[in-house]
Amino acid sequence: MKINCKLTDSTEYKQFCCIENSVYTLKISKNFEYWYYDLCDLIDFYNNSSVEIVLNANRADIELARKLYGNHRYNECYLRKYETDIMVHSTPFENVESIIKDGELKSWNILKFEKSNWEQIPIGTLLGDIDDFSNYVMLSILSQNSEVVTASKQKHKIDTNINQLYKPGARFYLNAKKLASDGLLLRDGEHIKVKDYIPLNEYLIWYSTTENLGLNKISTPKEFFEKSNNRFFELYPHYK
What strands, in cross-sheet order, belong to the sheet with 15-20? Predict the structure, then answer.
């Protein structure tokens, strides 16, 4: 497995992933704050792993990144100043009942092993994701609308339209501060994630569904995302 990492000067994106010359490529722009965390996390996370990092950056930029990064680590047991106390994992409607029953959020690979009728390929394959990503439960920050991923799963194709119709599942609001302090929160330069599974009884604060939000079963990523976050802050205003 291979990741091609390019350090750029783009003003159009903080990060951008794509396939170039048949290789998964992550572009990181120096024009956005904390770019050096992403670069160094990427290098250190995959050091001595089966994933090869091909780095397209000049030596001066790498040395500057290391200087700014200092003694930080990709698995450090506290949140950085740009990370939020709460992180979210979104899941499709058909998975909600089994997640609650199991009491765990599980990685795609674990679910594939446990469930004979599990999906054949993860949705990320359509973006060229490497196999290693499937070993983790991926998390997003509150302001990131991960519902478009859930909607894309239902269509079996990538669709980033936040106003498309889809059947929402659930948004799980997790205690990221505790995940970090317990040494479970990992940063690979592109994602914030947890290996294998997340026990809900230890880290779940609340989860939203169309039922507990009073919404129709058919919604849009925009509506479900906004209503879920608004209700979360109504219930837990101290996280604002």
Answer: 15-20, 23-29, 2-8, 52-56
